[in-house]
């Protein structure tokens, strides 16, 4: 089943320019920081594959240091993290580990030296859209995604230790959902990871750490994980597009309405500390800001390739050019999408939807259409719930990471999300929504990820503009009764297969496509990642 929260798809709300390479990297560092047994004095970040090739242009290095300092993904101080580290007395080095086909495309090993002489090494993977996973601790393979309250315990591999740990949890009335133990060798260092149903408090960690042969116990907080507080009833669960349509039919709900009802069960709590409706209203608020700031106050991007393009497109909409070509609504949508990428490229705050590199498509298309139709905020939020459902399906059954599936996984997914959301906004049926999403994917299939200079600037901004056009045309086709002859689930499967077939040079490494042209290699401004 899809286990993601809607706000793992329409989020994180973050400082740009990349959800996987900036927000995801920062989140891995936050997890590593939480596992350190003592305050950190020095850290070495070893970057592999796409991280190694493009970290300068994506701000990955700054994001990693920010995470170790405890900054969040939306903290504008991320861009100053090196300076803040020096002020805090934190030493750090960035090492390019190069290519290792045995590792995830976005992998970093974080080697921490702590006060008192202790040390720990944590390896993490950025899965796309800001989601992360811990894959090893001190060289011992683990798998920690943080979808439930998670406890990490370091101990000796001796008889009776596991029994003592489970007894401690039982005495504290904590129910164990899963338990996994990993060890270096028989009798040596071992780690046990517990996923539990109840919240984890400091007193419980203290009790676990007091057991004989236990080095320390820590709660693992994985930012961006769903952190479900309650199971979702079967009538609101789905694993595929066909199941989503069946659930909508059985409940007589639109896709957006069903996704909202699911989110209420997934993340709502009795204390009322989290409101899905308020969270979605905040997403809409940030989207309105990100789509307009660069039009009214253009700024030069970090790499120098962007700055003012969105304003130029918006100004064309005031003359006769828009009428002859894109039309008023699509011109507005294009300018909004481009403005979002400009804000991201200046390390401004945006909503990854589903990624930072594709963040302009959903808000660009949806807000322009809402302007043209006079749609109220409640209808726009319902359409955003719809978009999150489509994005969650693609994330679960394919990928939204450019380093795994190319730009089809980013702009292609965003186009599908926007197309489906537009159909719901304009009164279409759930089946028409998925028809529109299928058409959008079909027409972006095979799109490569080739950031010039390793920066999320060009061709990323122009592809967001094309993604908006794809979404709006796909929505109009579906609403006109022109469906997709291939079912949505099969289209997503094809997308996954095409992404896997793309060579590494065309998957966000800045080694192929436009990034490998002589002009890109020899003359573009920026970080020099392609040199």
From TrEMBL:
Keywords assigned by UniProt, alphabetized: 4Fe-4S, Gluconeogenesis, Iron, Iron-sulfur, Lyase, Metal-binding
InterPro entries (UniProt xref): ACT-like_dom_sf (IPR045865), ACT_dom (IPR002912), ASB_dom_sf (IPR029009), Fe-S_L-Ser (IPR051318), Fe-S_L-Ser_bsu (IPR004643), Ser_deHydtase-like_asu (IPR005130), Ser_deHydtase_asu (IPR004642), Ser_deHydtase_bsu (IPR005131)
Pfam families: ACT, SDH_alpha, SDH_beta
GO biological process per UniProt: gluconeogenesis
Taxonomic superkingdom: Bacteria
Coiled-coil residue spans: none
Gene Ontology terms for molecular function: 4 iron, 4 sulfur cluster binding; L-serine ammonia-lyase activity; metal ion binding
EC number: 4.3.1.17
Cofactor: [4Fe-4S] cluster
Enzyme class: lyase
Catalytic activity line of the entry: L-serine = pyruvate + NH4(+)
Pathway: Carbohydrate biosynthesis; gluconeogenesis
Protein family (similarity comment): Belongs to the iron-sulfur dependent L-serine dehydratase family.
NCBIfam families the UniProt entry points to: sda_alpha, sda_beta
Protein's UniProt name: L-serine dehydratase
Origin species: Tractidigestivibacter scatoligenes
